[in-house]
Amino acid sequence: MLNPDSQNDFDSLLPGSSTEAGTSRRTALKAAMGMGFAVSVLPIEAQTVITTPTDGLTVGEVTIDVQGFKMPAYRAAPAGKTNLPVVLVISEIFGVHQHIADVAVRFARQGYLAIAPEMFIRQGDAKNTEYAKLLSDIIAKVPDRQVMGDLDATVAWAATQGGDLNRLGITGFCWGGRITWLYTAHQPKIKAGVAWYGRLVGAQNELTPVNPVDIAGKLNAPVLGLYGGADAGIPQDSVEKMRAALKQGPATAQASEIVVYPEMPHAFHADYRPSYRKPAAEDGWKRCLAWFKTQGVV
Q: What is the mean pLDDT of the chain?
């Protein structure tokens, strides 16, 4: 059974996502973290894929200890620098493939220590699993409690790698957008969050007991939500429910903001997918950077 709290993210993924087995494709994608794209998102819209230069940066896979479990993550940061602002980059359901790694690199070019942890690795390999099995065998079995613990360990690791936890932010896409809201309510050190089209309401179960709308009053920092007005998986009435919940919360909730891009689909920032919309993606990125700067994560 699918995790109902993630269902809207599943419903709004690009049409035509491949579910065909393909040994050559799978073999080609078994590369270092951050290289290549996930099986489930092929074929790629190659003409719009953004590749950010990594010169002057330290980039690549690292291992983060989570109570004895070795969790892989992609790290990007200015080479040789310390006392850096930290941003956690939370992936979609497809894991830390090339696009998510490139987002981390974009943050590093802005002076951040950016870390994208593999949130699904205990359940399986999200990048190299066909779509149907990805949903049922991996994503549906990831508990929020596990994710919160993995991110806490990532924050602790950042502090040992030149990161300044007084300047800690989080951003995430689709599945990661929901996690951005939840982790901002969980982690007192967070100074700002930016949630890209993360689901706000939905069914609850043992693994995913709360929705963002339920924890709006517990946010430790303001969150900027970036949503598409034509997102079939995140109805506008749920966005309005979140806005109302934020208005009724404490100062951190009331300082949060939700921006809706009219007629934009889900995943409008994903430059490797047909859903990509360059004007909205570029505006959202500018807003993201400005939000972190305003909240002191810079």
A: 90
